[in-house]
Design brief:
Elements: E1 2-5, H1 23-35, E2 44-49, H2 61-71, E3 75-80, H3 86-94, E4 100-103, H4 111-123, H5 134-139, E5 142-151, E6 154-163, E7 175-178, H6 191-203, E8 209-214, H7 221-241, E9 249-255, H8 267-273, E10 275-280, E11 288-295, H9 298-310, E12 315-322, E13 325-335, H10 338-352, E14 357-358
Parallel strand pairs: 2-3, 3-4, 8-9
Antiparallel strand pairs: 1-2, 5-6, 7-10, 8-10, 11-13, 11-14, 12-13
Helix pairs in contact: 1-2, 2-3, 6-7
Length: 359
């Protein structure tokens, strides 16, 4: 949930979650809403989060940073539990003038104290000006600063990283819709996501996306693959019915091989695994990858990654399921177009006498 706050920390009742965490989208609209209010006191947005973002689709942290800086509205995030992406949230807060707080699940009672600290800091704070030369701006992406001084209460110190250039954010996945067991029709509750995405694609006719269908374990491999691809195809049909050019949308499926939750005991966890993901095929994001190998252990996967990197390739591994057994997929990444990735894959095939698949 999100909380819009003023000096007295009055909270608006957050909207009910739809099953995914559209955190960046929520923050963006809250900052915008607060910037348009006529409140004369200091303004801030506080987010209490139990997970990272996985369905904002059109927004990333740089969008929020730009808007927050423009209106001088800091963002504070209280992240609770291991599902929170501490690095991304800390980066966002630091660059808006706010602060990120991480709490373990059993520390939730500290939220009240943190809200009090935020309220106090909005009334009592210091400002420091750093002289920065053009040479630093040209040659440095960031600057780490540390300030220390002595007071009657003892030594006080603080540090912050000043970013001169925005870091790109790479999402593990962005979910458009989820599905019930063995269902492939898109529920009406996801219409808002589809309408927003279709409008962006219509406004940007050169943009391309890939829809990736997923399933929980709903039968054998063939059944899971069929369900996954039909879910992705139905999302594509919905976007086309809203005016999107069909040429802008690619479709593929991961079947039940790439669950969010590997232990699928409950229907809730299975529901989140039965999803269609969005991937932007923006050349600047270097979206295309080559599947370069498979491994049965993390140690073996890491060894393959190191071998590819020693040969001059950018590589990583990801965990997935193969016949419901955890395994590892080694990938070479960093290609702006499918054609460029396929050219490299063909050359690798000639050298190593094995297949290399482009995704």
């Amino acid at each position: 949930p999100s909380i819009i706050v003023n000096e007295k920390l009055k909270a608006e009742k957050p909207s009910q979650p739809s099953g995914f965490s559209a955190i960046y989208k929520t923050l963006y609209h809250n900052v915008k809403q607060l910037s348009e209010s006529d409140a004369k006191n200091e303004k801030a947005v506080i987010l209490i989060a139990y997970s990272t973002d996985n369905s904002s689709l059109l927004y990333d942290r740089n969008d929020i940073i730009e808007l927050s800086k423009k209106h001088s509205i800091p963002v504070y995030i209280i992240g609770i539990g291991n599902g929170v992406d501490s690095y991304s949230f800390n980066y966002l807060c630091e660059n808006t003038g706010g602060k990120f707080y991480f709490l373990n699940d059993e520390e939730i009672d500290r939220v009240r104290n943190i809200l009090g600290e935020i309220s106090f800091s909005m009334k009592n704070y210091y400002t420091v000006d750093f002289p920065i030369s053009l040479n630093i701006l040209k040659n440095c992406d960031k600057m780490k600063t540390k300030l220390s001084f002595n007071s009657s209460l003892g030594r006080i110190s603080d540090s912050i990283v000043i970013n001169f250039k925005g870091e790109k954010e790479f999402f593990r996945y962005q979910a458009i819709a989820s599905f019930n067991h063995r269902e492939v029709d898109v529920d009406k509750s996801f219409n808002e996501n589809l309408i927003e995405l279709a409008q962006v694609l219509k406004d940007n006719p050169k943009a391309r996306i890939e829809l990736i269908g997923n399933s929980s374990i709903e039968g054998n491999e063939t059944i899971c693959n069929d369900l996954a691809v039909n879910r992705a195809r139905n999302v594509r049909k919905a976007l086309i019915s809203l005016g999107t050019n069909p040429a802008q949308i690619n479709v593929r499926n991961d079947g039940s091989n790439n669950p969010i939750y590997y232990f699928q005991e409950s229907e809730k966890l299975q529901y989140f695994n039965r999803r269609v993901e969005l991937r932007w095929l923006n050349p600047d994001l270097l979206p295309f990858e080559i599947i370069a190998g498979w491994a049965v252990s993390e140690t073996e996967a890491l060894k393959q990654v190191e071998e590819w990197e020693n040969n001059g390739y950018r590589s990583y591994y990801e965990r997935y399921l193969q016949n419901n057994i955890p395994a590892y997929r080694v990938k070479i990444w960093g290609y702006p177009t499918y054609e460029e990735a396929q050219k490299i894959a063909n050359n690798l095939k000639k050298t190593f006498k094995q297949d290399f698949v482009v995704q």
